[in-house]
Amino acid sequence: MKQAVIRQVKSMSMSCDPVGNLLLVKFSYHGASDSCLFLPASIVFWLLKHMPVNQDPTLKQPLNMPKISQDDWDYERNPRALTVNCKQLADSLRMIFALDTGADLTAVLDRANVELMRQIMVHYTSDLIDLDA
Known about the structure:
The protein is an alpha+beta fold. The chain is built from 3 helices and 6 strands. Strands 3-2-1-6-5-4 form a 6-stranded mixed β-sheet.
């Protein structure tokens, strides 16, 4: 059985590959190095239907968003998310990604990172195809 890796997200970035119909997500963690994963459009659209929308007008965007480079896209060991399971907590969202390689990844996003992720995914919806629509 694969052991889950749990990381507290400090900040994150996303980049779109409309040809592959997916996003590259780069997480920056507290106390750990950055990591990337490929997020298929089907998961992006599912998340957009189920993620909470920010209701706090004073919420500030996370600082120091990691930069995504061509090397991040080309790195052959970046896993692909097969599924995601989310649990909303009082002030965060726990996302458990089942990956195609290695252990599952549990990313804990504070409210600012949840809203950042939601806004970036909304931005890229016109570049992705919702195959389940």
